[in-house]
Amino acid sequence: MGVDVIVAENLTKTYGGRRGLAGLDLVVRPGEVLGFLGPNGAGKTTTIRLLLDLIRPTAGTVRVLGLDPRADAVALNRRIGYLPGDLVVDSRHTVETCLGFLASLRGGAGRDRIGALAGRLGLERSAPIRSLSKGNRQKVGIVQAFMHEPELLILDEPTAGLDPLVQQTFLAMVGEAAARGATVFMSSHVLTEVEAVADRVAIIRDGRLVALDTFAALRASAVRRVDLTFTEPVDPAEFAGLPGVTDLHADGASLRCHLTGSPDALLRAATRHTVTGIVATEPALEDLFHSYYTGPEPIDAR
User: Fold this and answer.
1) Are 20 and 207 in contact (CB under 8 A)?
2) Gap between the Cα atoms of 121 and 230, Å rounded
3) Name one GO molecular function term (predicted).
4) Within this chain, do residues 161 and 209 fall inside the same structural domain, yes or no?
5) What is the CATH number of the domain that holds 249?
6) pLDDT (tens digit per residue) in 121-172
7) pTM listed for this prediction
């Protein structure tokens, strides 16, 4: 698989007495799309700025593409495509001039792809930057991040301001980048778009990593509501204390509970009776992540 693309060890950033990042340990594998999620102020943008050497860590280390972001900044900049949360460019120029200038900073790399990418996104190249809406400025940012086919894409809220059709085009571009072997590190608040493209998800809260896994694994570990019905009333004591079972309620021939983890023990207990119905309700995607944003932190999220 090669060298891990991003390796952060005890990465820490404080701003005076204010916490930005508190001992982050994170590994991003070659060729994967990693969704980087968390509430506002969790440390997502701080992490991205540290990866790009836009700010320096208070403690800890980080390697990007096997290199030191500080010592090897020039070499890394040619291999990375970066889309900030709010792109700021010289508003006096046209889109064409702006993108051509940015290509020239990389020795002309990607200049021949500007037209095709702009066409896919519906971006008018002759338009002055100052006349663009938020969504069209975002398109400029997407083109400059993708045009040189970088090994690593670092995307901070990449679909902010885009209409739904352009969002789908963007997600297709992410998929194409991953298919050619690029690694994508994407911070976003739009959970459905992350779920559509991410191989794994890292969740950060208060500057610390609280979860790192696939969507499927996170869903499997979530609390589900289970409703069971039987042909006759059951004794709830038979189900009390089963692994993963909480909030147990019985009403005649019906039994309701919350379940975390494997349903095996619950199903084994249920099949001692005649079961007439079973419904397991998965948490909504937003509820699942809200539990990580606000609930108790896992003991070990690494």
Assistant:
1) yes
2) 55
3) ATP hydrolysis activity
4) yes
5) 3.30.70
6) 999 999 999 999 999 999 999 999 999 999 999 999 999 889 999 999 999 9
7) 0.80
